[in-house]
Specification:
The protein is of the alpha+beta class and 203 residues long. It has four helices and seven strands; from the N terminus they run βααββββββαα. The chain has one domain (11-198): Alpha-D-Glucose-1,6-Bisphosphate, Chain A, domain 4.
Length: 203
Amino acid sequence: MKDELPKQEEGAQMDVFEKVTFKDEAAAKAFYPVVRERLLEVYNWDKWCGFPTATFILTDPFGKEMRRQVMEGDYLKINIPGPGTTKGEGFDWVVVEWIKEEQSSAGQMMAIRVRPAANPLHPDPETAHFFKDKATSTFKVYRKGMEVHAEVHGRNEIPNSEGAVLINNVRNVLIGWMAKIGCTYPQWKSLVLGLLAIKKQEI
């Protein structure tokens, strides 16, 4: 999977890792589907983050809000604290460019990669996100033996500062700078911890 992450060429890079270890492989096998389902239900990610943060709204390729498991070609419109872009109509948009699942005798893996995109509800093709469309975020959960892991990987995170609207550029530079110095790390750390949270009924 590491080889499938985009090569880091410019801008910021971010990696978040977390895991839980069970007493035996059977327990890990039983818990992995729970984590997999949480990953695919993007519209619930803010719930698993565990504190007020960005909210993630799943839409189909035409911008219609959906409450189902995410699919390739879907969009996520992200509502982060503070003003959004005018092109995004208050939201930052990413497109789900691929979803990959693997299974073997050693374990299972599910990964989702998203990339900044234009607002599908707006005729302007300009990227409606605080990063340029070279940036990617890869969300991954997997089981290996008695361990279940959750990870987030950001690559080539470059502020989107060359758009036609000055106020959007200023806003994107500020948020991109905050991301570069690690302000978004707690959000993604809380997400991976939430994806791996074990409720009493799941032990």
